[in-house]
Design a protein that fits this description.
By secondary structure, the protein is α/β, with parallel strands linked by helices. The protein is built from eight helices and nine strands. It has one domain: TIM Barrel (Alpha-Beta Barrel), CATH 3.20.20.
Length: about 190
């Protein structure tokens, strides 16, 4: 599909696969991902050796992702991102979060986030629940009330939370090994 052309050209190590259709916030925007589209895109990523980062914005998205693995569209060592607090997906309450965590297969790697002011709380919740952390400006613009953040500041704050909870920050090579990623030469070096 046209939505995959950039993946085919760039061959990133990881590529997002939003695993369901969803209304976003109050805007008249619907993220459309039908089962057929997801099977096609997921199959292309797998065939290209690009690791799908499954984004589950609700429990049904996680349910369908498990179906894609069962159908062998996606490899069994899947990577899933539990996306909390995005209207109108899974709310960022701990009961919903733990329901999603408890439905991630034990062979999968997972991480979680929440948007806005709960971003760092969910960095801690993900570590405490045995997962990995995602932070960044895509999910939250603020370091503190009224103080715009940089990506580096958000990463530094999350790293502090992770280490203060007794967990360890992995380096790039450790992450590649853990996620079974295929590192490719940069495009400029390949030319």
């Amino acid at each position: 599909t046209n939505r995959m052309e950039h993946v085919r050209q760039c061959l990133p190590e990881i590529c997002t696969l939003d695993c369901g259709t969803m209304n976003f916030a109050e805007a008249d925007y619907v993220m459309t991902n039908t089962p057929g589209m997801l099977r096609a895109m997921g199959g292309m990523m797998t065939a290209l050796g690009v690791k799908p980062e499954i984004e589950a914005f609700d429990t049904g998205h996680l349910w369908f992702a498990k179906q894609l693995v069962e159908e062998k569209v996606l490899n069994p060592d899947a990577l899933v991102q539990l996306c909390m607090g995005v209207p109108w997906g899974a709310p960022d309450d701990l009961n919903t979060f733990m329901a999603m965590v408890n439905n991630v297969p034990s062979t999968w790697n997972w991480s979680a986030f929440s948007i806005g002011r709960n971003q760092m709380a969910y960095a801690a919740a993900a570590v405490l629940a045995g997962g990995n952390v995602r932070v960044g400006l895509e999910d939250n613009l603020w370091l503190d009330k009224g103080v715009l953040a940089t990506n580096a500041q958000l990463v530094e704050r999350a790293a502090s939370i992770v280490t203060n909870l007794g967990a360890r920050i992995l380096g790039p090579e450790e992450v590649r090994k853990k996620l079974n990623l295929t590192k490719r030469a940069p495009l400029a070096a390949a030319a």
